[in-house]
Amino acid sequence: MQDRSNSKSPLDNGLSRRQILVAAASTAAATATLGAAAQTSSPRSAVDESVLDVVVIGAGLAGLTAARDLQLAGCESFVVLEGNDRVGGRTLNHHLQNGHYSEAGGQWVGPGQTAVYDLCRELNIGMHPTYLKGKSVYAAQDGSLYEEDSGGGFSVSPNMQRVVDKLNELAADVPSGAAWTAPKAKELDALSLADFIEPYNLEAMDLLSFDVGFRLTDTIHYQEVSLLYALSRINYAGSYEQLEGFTGGAQEQRIENGSQYISEVMAQQVGDRLHLSSPVRKITDWDSDTVSVHSDSGVYRARRVILAISPALCNKVQFQPELPQARRELQQGWPGYSPGRKTCHVYERPFWRDMGYNGWFFTIGGEVMWAYDNSPEDESIGVINAFIYPSMPNDPDVLAPMLANMYARAFGDEALRYTEFHDQDWGQEPWCPACVSPLTPGFLTSGLMPALRDPIGGLVWSGTETAEIWHTYMDGAVRSGHRAALEALHGLSQSQRV
Amino acid sequence: MQDRSNSKSPLDNGLSRRQILVAAASTAAATATLGAAAQTSSPRSAVDESVLDVVVIGAGLAGLTAARDLQLAGCESFVVLEGNDRVGGRTLNHHLQNGHYSEAGGQWVGPGQTAVYDLCRELNIGMHPTYLKGKSVYAAQDGSLYEEDSGGGFSVSPNMQRVVDKLNELAADVPSGAAWTAPKAKELDALSLADFIEPYNLEAMDLLSFDVGFRLTDTIHYQEVSLLYALSRINYAGSYEQLEGFTGGAQEQRIENGSQYISEVMAQQVGDRLHLSSPVRKITDWDSDTVSVHSDSGVYRARRVILAISPALCNKVQFQPELPQARRELQQGWPGYSPGRKTCHVYERPFWRDMGYNGWFFTIGGEVMWAYDNSPEDESIGVINAFIYPSMPNDPDVLAPMLANMYARAFGDEALRYTEFHDQDWGQEPWCPACVSPLTPGFLTSGLMPALRDPIGGLVWSGTETAEIWHTYMDGAVRSGHRAALEALHGLSQSQRV
User: Fold this and answer.
1) How many domains are contained in chain B?
2) How far off is chain A from B90, nearest CA to CA, in Å?
3) Which of A62-76, B26-40, B136-150, B403-417 has the lowest mean pLDDT?
4) Cα angle vertex A351, ends A349, A353, to 5°?
5) How far is residue A137's CA from residue B195's CA, in Å, rounded to a whole number?
6) Among A164, A261, B349, B447, which is least packed by CB within 10 angstroms?
7) Is A481 at the interface with chain B, CB within 8 A?
8) Complex-level ipTM
9) A339, part of any domain
């Protein structure tokens, strides 16, 4: 037991409290003349200590939640292996000057995302509302600008409302964690979202709103997204409005210190059991009592392995023996590349707010999907983030002023005087092949999906894709981590039965 | 694996979804020609199947949450033993005519109680706001009435605000789960809340507000409550206002179908592994690999035992060998009797609302601590619940009209025409010795507290009292259940090491 009870770091607040407890308990137990037999139920001398209880692969929200749960359970025999030189997975902060931050990956939370709320509560991490007040600006392809105050959210015309109502109605019968068991699953999965929408003959602005909404959620055009898959997401959110909305919706709040901070706090608790820059290349003997995990920082042997990475990333790992066919096909068919790109312009203050703008900017048919105000709550600096198409220039010296010029047309020349610029292209991340992974028509009902979640041999599958609700969200990642810890501990208890 | 995938009951919605998954996975695995070795990691033929993995004692929120987690982990080798002929522990519904309900035990949830929110989300159980709108009525000892509209909450005078501010300030340094480690813990624990308040010379109405607030939270007079203990609660709530308040506070919302429903849904999932009317009398060999639990429905042997009951109730169990001294003393010193009593008058409609009343009624220095509107959200009937002193008459034919007469003076003669009356006296419950258990001065710093939580031998301690945040609340119970499942599973994995 590592004793950090003297640590004053606010980062390990949760654990140090527990460690104090454990330390205090040991003392109390000693004074209570409790026999050693009562402290540890069995002698451990015969155990091969070089065999760990668990190896966790991936130090994103899923893997670190699982690791934290193992620790809370009393399990100290584990490591966490992370391919990157940082934690957080698909959450990442642009670290700005003077300790400011702007999220470069997943960033919002909203009602119903109770797992991530609970985790933040336990870690003593706060939240604040997304800034929404004011008018949005739309740039048409002919260069003309259009302003609208939609009251903090995407506007929905009566015609579009019919589409939304129908989606909500259909989604009610789709269990989000097992969409393939829904009535008419095959029919719904044969269609793309675009197929479904087409007969409604929506106006251009409705289509834009719809396209932007789903593109922000899924990164790809809704022509490529299975209707059944879209319904599974609407199901867990409660409604289309709650999935795509801000107030009362999945984009209602931001995490204090940025979403990556959640993982950073958990990483502090895991301590030196976390190994960064340790991509896993090969897993052998996963069907035996002791699995070997071959990483760039060495070979680790363990009785259970939690793979807290996306199914697509599992393809980068060589398995010996081969995985069962269904699992292999699941991984191979899983979307492995859905690029997302997020930029960040920093200003001395959020000047657009004074002019009644919310910082939202769209180019209709252009390359800025959505720019938005991502300033800190205290307005000490101004930040405009943007989701842009991967086709935009990579050179920041070209891209930064190009975007700033667009913002200047919308919000005035002050937009040209940015103090910092950052760009995050998720398509370039070696250990995050896709920021989200919307499923294409036919995949959910291919018969492969049951291989997504159920443990096989010494392997436990985690990662947001495996969550029953809020899959592909931070919340789903946390849920999948909790489940994985339980499954791994249960597996350990079984593996000793000889 | 019990297959309930064909069940249409809304009660097992969460699990049936998972069970569908599991069933589907088995099919897929079979078609994928996956070897049997990959399905179960070790042969189990040599295992003594009469020894369970886990016995859970107590079918309240803590025990059932733990049992549900065991199931989610894949563990099916457990039973839940409950002394009562019902589940829910300190949550209980008065079951009214026509399917209506009114909570007779713990009933409210509020911001920060993320564990119970998350559980309800997973179980598909909704919530609705507590009814607050209108004036409250106070009855003085001379019979005079006084009305006040405090906007849905207890009013706080400027003088009282000084007390509250000081409490909040002190609470910030008290870690709720380990209050004894706070700076000046001994000093703060030497005082009662009354000692702390006295120097402020509060007015009678302030004292009433304070007394009612803490009495509703703790059931006893604040003269008996340790200041340090009170601070530990304010700490987890965030502030005194959040602990005692309604909107934005711990009494903000009610559970749909009543709080007992949460346990009823989980009990459905546990199925026939739950044994009601099975009080546990004795636990033997808790320091060995196989613990024996002697209950009225038989002796169960298990490798781990989760005691999801209050420390006071543990005194009713005989342990062989004796528990360590610190644990014994902890249990013996734990408050075992803090009576709470809750009545319920049912009316055709919440008529008081029409007259601008919120249904709140207090007798200053009298026996009605607090009566309040507990009607269903749709106003289909009217319900007035009341916290009353145990000294009130037990005979419902005497008590019901006595209370109705008081309500009639406050809200008009319609209050006399109630259609049902119910009374729940927690002091009479055989397996709930105390609805809450506020700690008296000196207990938290007695050195016994570390024995509250840490597993010993095959025993894992659960129950809301063991939670690090929101102890004595439903939320704490759920948290303690999650932790207990993790600890039990970890213990199982260790107990096999020979």
Assistant:
1) 1
2) 23
3) B26-40
4) 115
5) 61
6) B349
7) no
8) 0.85
9) no
